[in-house]
Design goal:
Blueprint lengths: L16 H52 L3 E5 L3 E5 L6 E6 L5 E2 L3 E5 L8 E7 L2 E7 L5 E5 L1
Antiparallel strand pairs: 1-2, 1-5, 2-3, 4-6, 6-7, 7-8
């Protein structure tokens, strides 16, 4: 039988401030551990992408040189590269490196209609590492991880 002084329990829903602070602290610690490896993965992926584009464009220059019967010139500096026809001056491909990637040295190579090319070694790197691209005298392209 209820009395005049019966204490009713108030039902609360939600989280307390302490519980929210604990969750935010745990989430912050997890992010502190997860972000650096993720950023390194992104840098590594950007390096791979720039390396693959450069190697593909070198192969394109060789193919176009053979199919058109013209000499094509590849010129690269730290920021990017161009493929041009040195006789007409026409630019066939021009790209800038992104993702903090850069070449170590400037380079120039000619592709000849019979499939050969000037030998050149291109070292491309960013904060996650480096790759070496070898343009062989046969015009073939090799990619190495530094």
């Amino acid at each position: 039988m209820p009395t005049k002084y019966t204490v009713r329990r108030i039902r609360r829903e939600g989280f307390t401030l302490v519980e929210l602070m604990v969750i935010i602290t745990v989430f912050g610690m997890m992010m502190t551990m997860a972000v650096p490896p993720f950023l390194n993965y992104v840098r590594s992926n950007r390096l791979d992408t720039n390396t693959d584009r450069l190697a593909a464009d070198l192969q394109l220059a060789r193919s176009l040189s053979i199919s058109n019967g013209q000499i094509l010139r590849f010129t690269a500096d730290a920021a990017g590269y161009t493929i041009t026809n040195p006789v007409s001056g026409r630019t066939i491909r021009s790209r800038q490196f992104d993702g903090g990637c850069a070449l170590a040295l400037n380079a120039t190579a000619d592709f000849f209609p019979w499939g050969m090319a000037d030998t050149v070694v291109l070292d491309i790197a960013n904060g996650s590492g480096g790759r070496r691209i070898n343009l062989l005298p046969t015009g073939m392209v090799e990619v190495e991880v530094n």
